[in-house]
Amino acid sequence: MQTTIKSQVTFTGVGLHSGRPVRMTIHPASAEYGIWFRRSDLDGDNLIPARWDAVVPSKLCTLIANRSGASVSTIEHVMAALAGCGVTNALVEVDGPEVPILDGSAQPFVKGILARGLRELAVPVRALRILKPVEVRNGQAWARLEPADMLEIDFTIDFVEPAIGRQEKALNMSNGAFVRELCDSRTFCRQDDVERMQANGLALGGTYENAVVFDDDKVLSPGGLRHEDEAVRHKMLDALGDLALAGAPILGKYTSQRGGHALTNKLLRALFADPFAYRLVDVAEGITGGKLPGVGVRRTDVPVLA
Ligand SMILES: [Zn+2]
């Protein structure tokens, strides 16, 4: 069934790019509402749909905007938390142009959402079943969606820096796998990139506390890595958040090598451009009893697919 959060939950922190304080509250919403963001610091048309067609090209994060130009950036980690917890309906209110970065992972969002608990709504989840492979490329990077019974994410990264190197991980997202295995993996960057971004007025809120910063073969952030392959796990977290902008949980397999936010959005645009590539299906029963099912719904949980 569709779900929402039982009661509102607030997060305060700084924006990664502005370095300025920001307050974000996730509110419950009714069935069929979907996920929307609201810029509470702006008057007028301040609602922004968390949808693939509201994404504005941005190098460093996922940024969405409405027709009036109201925008919010760095939405991917809270989107991953909502999707990974199975929240299908919520209003995310932010009092500034970006979501708080917190520790650079989705774990604080997941903890806050689960502390409030989920409420089932008496309406079936509408899922997006992938009917045929769709693939996009950008140089050496590529991303693909193909038919599968539940959401699986398979990601490969390949960095020359020995601190990261080549990492591959594949994970079935059903049954709370996101919460168990991915949500605590933090964003990462090279020390050189941090210096270059900050010289250009970007990532002003970036610290060793909210990103894994590495330099050649060294991890500079105190405490080191949370997982040996934290980098690829974070890329999978980002992918889940960006795929959630499809507006419905995906029943299909996502594979990417060297992909990122822009490529995942390009993939969703390619998917929705081909009416034979997908079908919306009502999932009669799937999210069970307040557990953490994640995005994917197992076919064995769901005997009837429309
Ligand atoms: Zn990220």
Distance between the termini: 14 Å
Main β-sheet description: 7 strands, mixed
**CATH topology term of the largest domain:** lpxc deacetylase, domain 1
- Bound molecule types: zinc ion
What gyration radius follows from the Cα positions, in whole Å? 18 Å
Number of helices: 6
How many runs of DSSP E, i.e. beta strands?
A: 20
Helix fraction bin: 10-25%
The CATH superfamily of the largest domain is known as lpxc deacetylase, domain 2
Known CATH architecture of the largest domain? 2-Layer Sandwich
SSE order: EEEEEEEEHEHEEEEEEHEHEEHEHE
Short description:
With 306 residues, the chain is an alpha+beta fold.
Could you characterize the architecture of this molecule?
Its cofactor is Zn(2+). Catalyzes the hydrolysis of UDP-3-O-myristoyl-N-acetylglucosamine to form UDP-3-O-myristoylglucosamine and acetate, the committed step in lipid A biosynthesis. With 306 residues, this protein is of the alpha+beta class. It has two domains: 3-120, lpxc deacetylase, domain 1 (Ribosomal Protein S5, domain 2, 2-Layer Sandwich); 126-296, lpxc deacetylase, domain 2 (lpxc deacetylase, domain 1). The chain has six helices and 20 strands. The chain has helices at residues 76-84, 107-116, 177-182, 191-199, 230-243, 261-272, and strands at 3-5, 9-14, 21-28, 35-39, 47-49, 55-56, 63-65, 71-73, 90-94, 118-120, 125-130, 134-138, 141-147, 152-158, 166-172, 188-190, 212-215, 218-219, 250-257, 278-283. The strands form five sheets. Strands 11, 12, 13, 14, 15, 19 and 20 form a seven-stranded mixed beta sheet that branches. Strands 2-3-9-4-5 form a five-stranded mixed beta sheet, with helices on one face. α1 (76-84) crosses α5. It starts with a strand and ends in a 23-residue tail after the last strand. The model is unreliable at 286-293 and 295-306 (pLDDT under 50). The chain binds zinc ion. Zinc ion is lined by residues 76-77, 187, 234, 238. Zinc ion (ZN) is lined by residues 76-77, 187, 234, 238.
